[in-house]
Amino acid sequence: MEGDEEDSEDDSEEDSDDSEGELEEDEEEHKMVLVVRQDLKMGKGKIGAQCGHATLGAYKSLLMKANKGSVGAARALRIWESLGQAKVVVQVKTEEDMEAVVACAK
Predict the structure, then answer these.
(1) Contact of 100 with 37, CB cutoff 8 Å
(2) Which residue has better confidence, 102 or 106?
(3) How far is 75 from 56, CA to CA, in rounded Å?
(4) What is the pLDDT of residue 91?
(5) How far is CA 68 from its chain centroid?
(6) What is the DSSP letter of 87?
(7) Angle of CA points 68, 71, 75, to nearest 5°
(8) Taking the chain, what is the end-to-end CA distance rounded to the nearest angstrom?
(9) Given pLDDT bands bounded at 50, 70 and 90, which one contains residue 5?
(10) Alpha-carbon distance 15 to 104, whole Å?
């Protein structure tokens, strides 16, 4: 990460921050998938703005759940953040196609 100082030469002590970017054995990579419907006929700028709103909204929603004690939400956020907050944007033709993507993700 930019601006971080080099770790000390003594690597004998394990620290939770040292595992940034690495998964535990029982963890899976997490990605935020933004699904854009082509049938809405939005311009590229509008799509970009809406994806930004969706990203922030999803993050805030999950953070709120984590702050209320949801272990699953806290774990998902920790994994997603530690791996660089991966985001993928895909396009679909219709709302039905979008619902199929959501069902597959669940």
Answers:
(1) no
(2) 102
(3) 18
(4) 94
(5) 19
(6) E
(7) 115
(8) 32
(9) very low
(10) 36
Q: What is the pLDDT of residue 106?
A: 82
pLDDT digits (tens, 9 = 90+) for 76-95: 999 999 989 999 999 999 99
| Tokens 């959501």, located at residue | 102
DSSP alpha helix (H) spans, 27-105:
44-67, 71-82, 95-105
CB-count burial class (<10 Å; 0-12, 13-18, 19+) for 78: middle
Between 53 and 4, the more confident residue is 53
Domain map of the chain by residue range? 29-105
Nearest by Cα to 80 from 18, 4, 26, 27: 27
* Superfamily of 29-105 according to CATH: Bit1 (3.40.1490.10)
d(CA 101, CA 85): 20
Measured between alpha carbons, how far is 47 from 30 in angstroms, rounded to an integer?
23
pTM (two decimals): 0.69
